[in-house]
Design a protein that fits this description.
Mean pLDDT: 93
Radius of gyration: 23 Å
Number of domains: 1
Oligomer: single chain
Helix content: 25-40%
Largest sheet: 8 strands, antiparallel
Order of helices and strands: EEEEHHHHEEEEEHEHHEHEEE
């Protein structure tokens, strides 16, 4: 059975001496709001890490295969649904509605990320479009960040020609951008209405929570530095449609600098997370997963 309750959640994570989400339009500089100098991380970046964690832990097997994975050819995957539903090759671009719906449901049944986030699967080999029940906002840093550019040295060159041109000095120079420290906050929404259409159920929900809690522990790299999940606060509504507006629930989780700290933040201990338990509306419960 698909989930029967509406959920919202607040997700906190931090980065230390790393680049949480580089901007390819700015030379891979950490993404930055130019008006406030607060950093941000796109929802696409967070979904990528969730997908990678599910792919790693579930072995890309049904019903938890990953549709958007590295080096995937999407039309080839869509073709699997057409073959399973016995759709004629001449109807690949515009299958009959009944057959198209069957192909869409086959994709939802077999792929965790289609069932969770939705997907546009109407390119070439048409499997329809799905709006997923789980949506994330961009994450934004609690304070302004100051990205730093660090020059690095590689004690090797790529080709013999480079080595000869440098007269035997095989050092090459490069650079990387880091954020000394940043605490980021993202907010999420889970709709039982859309879950009904994709088949997103309680098992999928637990996989999602598990991914958010553990995904950074399996995503370390030289570029990203030290990243950790710091808080996952889940609001569960008693009703299908919800018992309170999401923005009022998000306002109950307040992150602020610890009054005893001075200067720029450099660790999670520089912050306080305050929860207004008294303000939780009737029909809504709050669970802290971290």
């Amino acid at each position: 059975m698909t989930i029967q309750n509406r959920y919202e959640f607040v997700y906190l994570f931090d980065v230390e001496m790393g680049n949480p989400n580089g901007d390819p339009d700015a030379g891979n500089l950490p993404r930055l709001d130019p008006e406030t100098n607060k950093g941000y991380v796109t929802d696409v970046c967070l979904k990528r890490k969730i997908r990678n964690f599910i792919d790693m832990t579930q072995g890309n097997k049904e019903p938890n295969r990953i549709y958007i994975r590295e080096a995937a050819v999407l039309n080839n995957i869509n073709l699997e649904a057409h073959k399973a539903m016995k759709i004629d090759t001449k109807d690949q671009k515009k299958p009959q509605k009944e057959k198209l719906d069957e192909a869409t449901q086959w994709m939802c049944k077999n792929f965790f990320d289609v069932r969770t986030f939705g997907a546009v699967m109407s390119t070439g080999v048409n499997c329809g479009q799905v709006r997923g029940p789980v949506q994330l906002t961009f994450a934004r840093s609690n304070d302004a960040i100051v990205p730093q550019e660090v020059t690095i040295t590689r004690m090797a060159v790529t080709t013999e020609k480079e080595a000869q041109a440098q007269g035997g000095d095989n050092r090459t120079m490069g650079r990387k951008f880091i954020v000394p420290y940043g605490l980021y906050r993202a907010e999420g929404f889970i709709s039982p209405h859309f879950a009904k259409h994709t088949g997103f159920d309680d098992d999928d929900l637990e996989l999602l929570w598990n991914a958010l809690i553990n995904m950074f522990d399996h995503d370390h790299s030289a570029a990203r530095g030290k990243m950790n999940a710091r808080g996952l606060y889940i609001f569960k509504h008693e009703s299908h449609l919800g018992n309170a507006p999401s923005h009022k629930l998000f306002d109950l989780i307040e992150v602020s600098r610890d009054g005893g700290t001075e200067g720029p933040s450099r660790s999670f201990s520089d912050y306080q997370v305050q929860i207004n338990d008294a303000g939780i509306p009737k029909g809504v419960s709050l669970e802290n997963k971290i």
